[in-house]
Every structure is written in structure tokens, then in C-alpha cells.
Amino acid sequence: MYIIVSASRTVTVIGTGVMGSAIARTLASAGHAVTVWNRTLARAETLRDAGAVVAGTLVEALESSEVIVMCVADHVAVDELMAVPGVAQVMSGRTLVQLTTGDAEDGRRGRQHADDGGFGFVVGAIIAYPRAVGTPQATILCAGQAAAFEACRELLSCLGDLQYAGEDPGLPGIIDGGLCSLLFATLVGFTHGAALAQQKGVHLDEFLRFARPYFRINLVEVLDETADRMQARNYGDTQSSVATSLNGLDNLVIALSQESGVDYEVMSAIKAVFQRAIDGGRGDEDVASLIEVFARG
Ligand SMILES: NC(=O)c1ccc[n+]([C@@H]2O[C@H](COP(=O)([O-])OP(=O)(O)OC[C@H]3O[C@@H](n4cnc5c(N)ncnc54)[C@H](OP(=O)(O)O)[C@@H]3O)[C@@H](O)[C@H]2O)c1
Q1: Of 64, 69, 206, 273, which one's alpha carbon is 20 to 30 angstroms from that of 250?
Q2: How many Å apart are CA 264 and CA 80, to the nearest integer?
């Protein structure tokens, strides 16, 4: 946890699920006066032990602070909450820090709503698990009105590595989407590989012994090289071409999956992408050239 450095402020947290609770606890332990509200009140009650005040109604919660941090499941929930009678009136003149995960369109809609309603607006993507909130491992990537962000910067800084991407409220959603793509595809590959090993009678420990250095060398270190290639659109002189990679995927991963009864639907989808690259004449190119297949179909 961070040492308390910012002046004490009043702040309201709307939504006390796993992430909202982590945010509320962190703000409270940084010395701020926190009011919380949650649709299911019992879930907010647990934050009393952190010193939070539990508001009985949404409007009451909003009235308690100049800065409102919202972190609910999705933007359907956000729209429902913003449409509650009395919310528009009470929001006027306050600042909303919208930390509910959303895409670029949600961010831009939120900004428009704030401009129309006369309140400040900051949108942020939390690039972390709840347990990392309050540590430098949690990146909070914000955008929106520069003045609103500056007014909240010190307050929000206890949440983690606070970044400001600029006025465009669509940016956090776009970057978060790209990172989620990286995360989910990687975790799916990792768990699929583990399932293959397990089905073939290889102990998970044995698989992990090789997976860890493999990941570091073949994925983490290769990221920069792949990034450079994508930026320069330079896909020649490769260590492993699209065609070679497809062979490995076909003859090793898919064959082994079929043999051991492991679901390989996701690997077939990956195979289809490689095949499209080859059909488009990219068989001899570096795998970085898949960006062209994804971006241009
Ligand atoms: N958990 C993570 O690892 C993580 C990481 C980054 C970002 N996030 C984002 O953080 C946000 C919250 O996620 P979470 O992990 O805290 O999920 P969660 O534990 O499932 O909590 C969801 C929250 O949304 C509220 N909610 C859902 N529908 C609602 C509605 N129609 N009206 C009012 N409130 C509603 C829930 O209230 P009830 O208690 O009444 O159901 C609860 O407070 C999401 O946008 C998520 O993508 C989460």
C-alpha cells in the first residue's frame, strides 16, 4: 500500500463488487472520507470496517461528495444508474470518475452525457486484478477532461500507477481492449497446453518447468521484435515463417489434441488465421505479419 501523501478528500464509490470494494478500501486507507453505495446493500455494509459510510440511496451517496467513482459491472448498469430519478440533478457540478470497463464508444458517450449534464468526466481502465489496487502494479489509464483529471489526480493516485492518456475518452477502452486480447489469448493457450500435457499423463509441474522459461524467452522477449516489425511493416528475414508456424500448429498441437481428446476448437480458429495469411501470399513472412490479416481481413 502507498503511504498517505494526499490531502484528505470526500469521495463516493458507486458499486462495491470485488473491484469497487478494493477501490473504496484503498481510498479509505489513504485517509479519504469514503461514502459507498451498492445495489445490494449488504455488499456495501462490509466496507463499514474500513471506515466507509454506507449510503441508503444512490442519490444520497452522490450528494455526499464532489467526486464520484463508479465501478459497476458494465455500461448497461451505468445507464440504468444514470437514469435513476434525481441523479441528473445531483450530478450537476460534480465530477464522475467512470472506472466501469467499457469500450471507446462507452467512453465517448459518457463524456457527451457529462457535457450535457454539466459535470466533470474522467474515464479510466483499471489494468489490474482487484488485489493489485493500491500498489504500483495496478495501472489506472485515464482520459477525459484535463481539468477534471487534474482536480482528481491526487485523490486517485493512491489507487496505483495513474496515467492520463489525453482528452479523448475513447482511448482507455481501446488500449484495455487490446490488452485483454493479449491476456485472454495467452491464458487460453497456456491452459490448453496444460490440458494437453495432463491428458497425455505429463505431470503439470513438469509442463510448468518448461513453460516458464519458454514463455519468457519465446513470448516476452519476442514482443519487442514483433512490435518493431509491425511498426516498420517489415516481415522478411524471419526465424520462423507463417508456414512453419502453421505446420507446428497442425502437426503438433491439433494432432496431439485429436489424439488425446482435448478440445481444439480455439486452435482451429488460430489455424484459420494462419491459413488466411498463407492464402494471401504471406507464407514466407514473419508471424508479425498476422497484424495485416487481422486489420485488413
Ligand atoms: N475483477 C477484475 O479483475 C477487474 C479488473 C479490471 C476491471 N474490472 C472492472 O470492474 C468492474 C466491476 O467488476 P467487479 O470485478 O467488481 O465485478 P463484481 O464483483 O461482479 O461487481 C459488479 C458490481 O456491479 C453492480 N451491478 C451490476 N449490475 C448492476 C445494475 N444493473 N445496477 C447497479 N449495480 C449493478 C453489482 O451490484 P450487486 O452487488 O448489487 O450485484 C456490483 O457492485 C467491471 O466493469 C469490470 O470489468 C474488474
Answers
A1: 206
A2: 39
Do residues 120 and 11 lie in contact, with contact meaning Cβ atoms separated by under 8 Å?
A: no
Cα distance between residue 187 and residue 215, in whole Å: 11
pLDDT in tens, 96-138: 999 999 999 999 999 999 999 999 999 999 999 999 999 999 9
> Would you say the CB of residue 98 lies under 6 angstroms from ligand 1?
no
* CA 67 – CA 292 distance, rounded (Å): 43
Q: Give the distance (Å) from ligand 1 centre to CA of residue 286.
A: 40
pTM over 0.85: yes
CB 133 within 8 A of CB 22: yes
62: number of Cβ within 10 Å: 24
CB contact set of 286 (below 8 Å; sequence gap of 6+): 226, 229, 235, 236, 237, 238, 239, 240, 241, 242
Cell of 151: 482536480
Strand partners, 14: 37, 70
At residue 296, the pLDDT reads 75
Which three three-digit cell numbers place residue 172?
Answer: 482507455
160 lines ligand 1 (CB under 6 A): no
Q: Is the pLDDT of residue 4 over 90?
A: no
Ligand 1 proximity of 43 Cβ (cutoff 6 Å): yes
For residue 265, the surrounding DSSP H or E stretch is: helix 265-279
Please state, in angstroms and rounded to a whole number, the distance separating the CA atoms of residues 224 and 59: 48
Ligand 1 site-directed mutation target among 18, 19, 142, most atoms within 8 Å of CB? 19
Cβ of 83 closer than 6 Å to ligand 1, yes or no, is: no
